[in-house]
Specification:
The protein has 372 residues and is an all-alpha fold. The protein has 17 helices and no strands. It is globular, with a radius of gyration of 20 Å.
Length: 372
C-alpha cells in the first residue's frame, strides 16, 4: 500500500499527467491522467474506509450542478471533468489521511527542484520558470505551501534546507504573489520564535545564488531586474511594478458577474474553457460560473480552514501559514477544480484540522508531526 501511495502522490503532487501532456503528447498525458484515477480507486477499495469529505463534496456539487445548467460546450468534456473530480475527492481524501508532514515536504521539495532544473537547463526568453507545474504562478504556490510546511519540522538542518530551496525556487518563478505571501509568512513566523529572523541571513545567500544563476544562464526577467535595482537602492516606478496587474484582469469580469449573480453564466465562462479569457481568480470564477450560492459555500469552507488553523496555531503553526498561502493563491488562479494537487493541499489542511479536533491531546508522534 505504501508503494501505491507514493506512486499516486508522485502523479498528483508532481503534476505528472499534465507535464506529460505538454512535453510528450496527448496520448501519454491522457494515459497518466486515467491511470491516476484508476490507482486512486484501487487505493480506496484497498484502504480502510472512514468518513468522506462532505465539505468539498457539497462545494463541488454546488459548483458543477449549478454551472451545468448554462454550459454551452461539449457535454462529454463537462461530464468527464466532473466525474474525475468527484473520484478524486472521494478516493483522494482517503489517501490524504495517510500522508504525513515529512511525505508532503519531500514530494513538494522534489516538485520545486524541477523549477531550478528548468532555469539551468531549459531557459526561456520569458525568464520565468515553473518545472513540473507548467505555470510560474502555480509553481510559486507550491513553493510557498512547502515553505509553510517547513514550520512543522523540528530538524533545524532540514528546516534551513527547506527554507533555502523553497525560497530560491519560488523566486525563480518571479511570481509577485509568492513574494507577497513569503514576506507575510515570515512576519508570522516571528510570532512562533524570534529566532526565525535568521531567514534574513538566508535571503542574502538566496539572492546571491540568483545572481549567479543569472550570470550563468541569463534569467532575462524584468522582475529580477527590478529586484536588483531595489537591492542597489535604485529607483523603480509604480508603473513598472504594476505591469500585468491581476486587478486589471479581474475588472473585465465584473459586469458579467453583475449580469448573473444568482446562478452565474455557466461552466467554463470564467475559466477560459470556452476560448474566452480566464478570470485568474477562483472566487470570481465560482460566482461567475455558478453564482453566489456556490461562492458562499466555498467561502465558508475557506473560513473554516482559517478559524481552526488559527485555533490550533500553538500546536501546528504551519496550518495557518498553509491556509494563508492557499487563500491568497486562489486570488490569482482559477483552476481549483482542475489542478488536483491544489485541491489536495486544501484537503490535507482540512484533515490535519480534523485530526486535531478529534484528538486534542494527541502527541506529535501520533500525528506524525515530526517525521524527519
Amino acid at each position: 500500500m505504501k508503494i501505491l501511495k507514493y506512486i499516486i502522490l508522485a502523479l498528483v503532487i508532481l503534476n505528472l499527467p499534465s507535464k506529460a501532456l505538454f512535453t510528450v503528447g496527448a496520448t501519454i498525458g491522457s494515459l497518466l491522467s486515467y491511470t491516476t484515477m484508476l490507482l486512486l480507486i484501487v487505493y480506496y477499495f484497498l484502504s480502510k474506509k472512514t468518513s468522506p469529505n462532505w465539505r468539498l463534496i457539497i462545494i463541488a456539487l454546488a459548483y458543477f450542478v449549478i454551472s451545468a445548467f448554462q454550459f454551452s460546450g461539449p457535454s462529454m468534456i463537462f461530464i468527464l471533468e466532473a466525474v474525475k473530480y468527484f473520484i478524486f475527492l472521494v478516493c483522494g481524501y482517503e489517501l490524504c489521511k495517510t500522508v504525513n508532514n515529512a511525505e508532503m515536504f519531500y514530494f513538494i521539495l522534489i516538485g520545486s527542484l524541477s523549477i531550478g532544473y528548468d532555469a539551468l537547463f531549459v531557459p526561456t526568453k520569458f525568464g520565468r520558470y515553473s518545472g513540473v507545474y507548467l505555470n510560474p504562478n502555480v509553481a510559486g504556490f507550491m513553493c510557498i505551501y512547502g515553505y509553510s510546511l517547513v514550520y512543522s519540522l523540528k530538524n533545524t538542518s532540514i528546516k534551513l534546507l527547506g527554507q533555502f530551496v523553497f525560497t530560491l525556487m519560488g523566486l525563480l518563478t518571479f511570481s509577485r504573489t509568492f513574494i507577497v505571501i513569503w514576506v507575510f509568512l515570515n512576519i508570522i513566523s516571528l510570532r512562533i520564535s524570534i529566532k526565525n529572523i535568521r531567514i534574513l541571513g538566508l535571503v542574502i545567500l538566496i539572492f546571491s545564488t540568483l545572481v549567479v544563476i543569472d550570470e550563468v544562464v541569463g534569467l532575462e526577467n524584468p522582475r529580477f531586474e527590478q529586484l536588483k535595482r531595489i537591492a542597489n537602492n535604485e529607483e523603480v516606478t509604480v508603473e513598472e511594478v504594476n505591469t500585468d496587474n491581476r486587478a486589471d484582469t479581474w475588472a473585465h469580469f465584473y459586469d458579467d458577474i453583475l449580469a448573473a449573480p444568482i446562478f452565474g453564466s455557466g461552466y467554463g465562462t470564467f475559466s477560459g474553457k470556452l476560448g474566452s479569457l480566464g478570470a485568474h481568480n477562483t472566487y470570481l470564477m465560482i460566482i461567475g460560473e455558478a453564482g453566489i450560492i456556490a461562492l458562499t459555500i466555498f467561502l465558508a469552507y475557506i473560513g473554516y480552514l482559517f478559524y481552526w488553523s488559527i485555533y490550533f496555531f500553538k500546536q501546528r503553526p504551519n496550518l495557518i501559514m498553509q491556509t494563508i498561502a492557499l487563500a491568497m493563491f486562489l486570488l490569482a488562479n482559477h483552476n481549483f477544480f482542475i489542478f488536483y494537487f491544489v485541491t489536495f493541499t486544501a484537503m490535507w489542511i482540512q484533515y490535519q484540522i480534523y485530526a486535531l479536533k478529534n484528538n486534542p491531546d494527541v502527541d506529535e508522534k501520533q500525528l506524525e508531526y515530526d517525521n524527519i
